[in-house]
């Protein structure tokens, strides 16, 4: 019996805040589920928080030392026999186009825990992920559940700007992370893809707190406005530059790195307008790409920007980094970007793009002199290229 249509219809008709409650009833009726729980990844990508457990009543689950965390990391369904019970827990990744939201846990009686049900439950987890993203327009339940502490106002503004923290397509995979997750203020990233191209941007508004966040908000929305008008990245930069200058008359600026990828060819156009760096890993070689430095956005009236070009090859990995990463200093006085960053990129080469930024930022936190992490951003892009109809690249 195919139970998918009835479950899909009921979940999509559920109130935005009641997706999990509705799913519990549906899975109990359809599969005899004994328990259904949802854990969501927190903003710092360190723990999984249970959705409907009051704060303080239950410790969050580690992303590294829990069955749920291992399923989250592998992005594969896992199962575990319930201790002292005749039941099996199924851990199912809740992921939408590469964006890792959390883990759905479904406990089934052992006699009903057949392999053919895993595919159906995986589909349910996928459905739940899509519905959560839709529901977030109308409820704070899911965003509130992701927090281990309160976000600063500046951080709230920055997280609301983001497209996601990961994205996958046939030609590429992207992962990104901001730190400190709960008090970030100036760093941000953005991307958009269509049938022919991918545009990727990293921005860093000068200053601290609300001022930096407001500045970045203006820059990101100006870039989006130009991009959505079908304008190339050089003119996107010029129009955002004009918007920032008109508002601040050169007193504030935003460092920006803009890239446009042709999905069919791997040709990349780039505008380097400020401090973010671009690194490339090709095979076992890691190097910083030397780009033509141009003025940050908003410094002068009517700045002119030009596009440089290079090509990416299948298997290439690109890292976009804010100055909070490569300017970090070790106790010995060595800048992180000199050698430690290259080592960190090499050490994470086997990880998927979605997990690389968190891993590098974790190493950065251990490397630094101070315990407090300045605004830091890492975006990782793995390039697969477009496959020809005959299966070649």
Automatic annotation (TrEMBL):
Domain of life: Bacteria
Region (Disordered): 55-84
Record keywords, A-Z: Hydrolase
InterPro entries associated with the record: Bact_Sigma-Reg, PPM-type-like_dom_sf, PPM-type_phosphatase-like_dom
A family per Pfam: SpoIIE
Entry's transmembrane regions: none
EC number: 3.1.3.16
Domain PPM-type phosphatase: 169-383
SMART domains linked to this entry: PP2C_SIG
GO MF annotations, alphabetized: protein serine/threonine phosphatase activity
Record protein name field: PP2C family protein-serine/threonine phosphatase
């Amino acid at each position: 019996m195919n139970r998918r249509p009835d479950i899909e219809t009921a979940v999509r008709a559920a109130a935005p805040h009641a997706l999990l409650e509705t799913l519990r009833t549906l899975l109990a009726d359809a599969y005899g589920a004994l328990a259904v729980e949802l854990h969501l990844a927190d903003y710092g990508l360190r723990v999984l928080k249970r959705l409907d457990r009051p704060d303080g009543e239950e410790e969050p689950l580690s992303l590294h030392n829990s069955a749920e965390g291992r399923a989250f990391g592998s992005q594969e369904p896992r199962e575990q026999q319930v201790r002292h019970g005749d039941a099996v827990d199924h851990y199912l990744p809740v992921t939408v186009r590469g964006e890792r939201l959390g883990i759905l846990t479904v406990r089934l009686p052992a006699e009903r825990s057949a392999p053919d049900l895993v595919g159906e439950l995986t589909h349910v987890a996928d459905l739940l992920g899509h519905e959560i993203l839709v529901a977030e327009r109308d409820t704070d339940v899911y965003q509130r559940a992701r927090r281990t502490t309160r976000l600063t106002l500046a951080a709230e503004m920055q997280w609301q700007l983001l497209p996601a923290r990961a994205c996958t397509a046939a030609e590429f995979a992207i992962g990104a992370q901001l730190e400190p997750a709960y008090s970030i203020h100036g760093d941000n990233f953005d991307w958009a893809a269509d049938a022919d191209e991918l545009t990727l941007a990293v921005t860093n508004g000068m200053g601290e707190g609300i001022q930096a966040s407001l500045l970045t908000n203006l820059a990101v929305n100006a870039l989006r406005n130009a991009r959505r008008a079908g304008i190339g990245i050089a003119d996107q930069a010029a129009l955002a530059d004009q918007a920032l200058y008109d508002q601040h008359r050169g007193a504030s600026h935003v460092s920006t790195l803009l890239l446009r990828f042709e999905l069919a060819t791997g040709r990349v156009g780039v505008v380097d307008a400020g401090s973010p760096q671009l690194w490339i890993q090709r095979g076992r070689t890691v190097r910083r790409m030397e780009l033509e430095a141009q003025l940050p956005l908003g410094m002068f009236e009517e700045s002119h920007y030009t596009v440089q070009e290079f090509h990416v090859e299948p298997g290439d990995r690109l890292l976009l980094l804010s100055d909070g990463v490569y300017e970090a200093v070790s106790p010995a006085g060595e800048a992180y970007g000199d050698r430690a960053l290259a080592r960190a990129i090499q050490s994470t080469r086997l990880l998927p793009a979605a997990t690389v930024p968190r891993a590098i930022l974790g190493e950065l936190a251990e490397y630094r002199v101070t315990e407090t992490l300045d605004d830091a951003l890492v975006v990782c892009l793995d390039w697969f290229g477009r496959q020809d109809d005959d299966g070649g690249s």
